[in-house]
Write a structure and sequence with these properties.
The protein has one domain. The chain is about 85% helix and about 0% strand. The protein contains five helices and no strands. The structure holds protoporphyrin IX containing FE.
Length: about 170
């Protein structure tokens, strides 16, 4: 059982790293570089790499969720704890609840970005790169992507707090 738990923590951290690293690479490297080049090619590039990264990201969400639940279970957390005020009020319980809430928010924002705003923005850029529609949609998709990148750092911090204690 201990081996399975170690593997689960390893897979959890690996999936979190791939998701956060991939997203930061897009936000900090790919998007700024594309802004310096041809807009139509940028639209195509973002659409094609975006769809590939979207699949990777949703696999990562599935892996962190399954391994996260298993890690909680191995640490003795049971469903009944989520309705126990003493556990919820404990530092560990608070960190878990916060992490689950931020994770749920990330899932909603990612779905909006990946399946609604992102595809709309890349289509508009391909159709008429300099149109006001393309500019508005691109800004929206970009903003929501940045919000997700910030939330990923919050999740990372909450992961560390779960294991090593909260700073408050
Ligand atoms: C994308 C979302 C997530 C990220 C980025 C993330 C990140 C992390 C990181 C980096 C750690 C290791 C912390 C350390 O060793 O100091 C960790 C641990 C942990 N995470 Fe997550 N996590 C995510 C989602 C979840 C979810 C959804 C759950 C629960 C369902 C969860 C439950 C846990 C647990 C229980 C641990 C402790 C593992 C252990 O026993 O050592 N995580 N997380």
């Amino acid at each position: 059982m201990h081996k399975l738990y170690l593997f689960s923590v390893w897979a959890h951290i690996l999936a979190a790293t791939i998701w956060i690293g991939g997203m930061l690479f897009l936000v900090l490297v790919v998007v700024p570089w594309l802004r310096t080049g041809a807009q139509v090619e940028a639209g195509r590039f973002l659409r094609e790499t975006g769809v590939r990264f979207r699949n990777v990201a949703w696999w990562c969400f599935g892996i962190v969720l399954v391994t996260g639940i298993f890690n909680l279970w191995t640490r003795g957390v049971r469903l009944a704890d989520f309705v126990n005020p003493d556990w919820i009020g404990s530092r560990f319980g608070t960190a878990v609840i916060l992490k689950l809430c931020v994770f749920a928010l990330v899932l909603v924002i990612s779905a909006l970005h990946d399946f609604v705003l992102g595809p709309k923005a890349t289509e508009a850029i391909q159709r008429a790169p300099r149109s006001s529609e393309a500019t508005v949609l691109r800004r929206r998709a970009s903003l929501i992507g940045r919000v997700n990148a910030m939330l990923s750092l919050v999740l990372l911090a909450l992961g560390v707090m779960l294991v090593r204690g909260v700073p408050w």
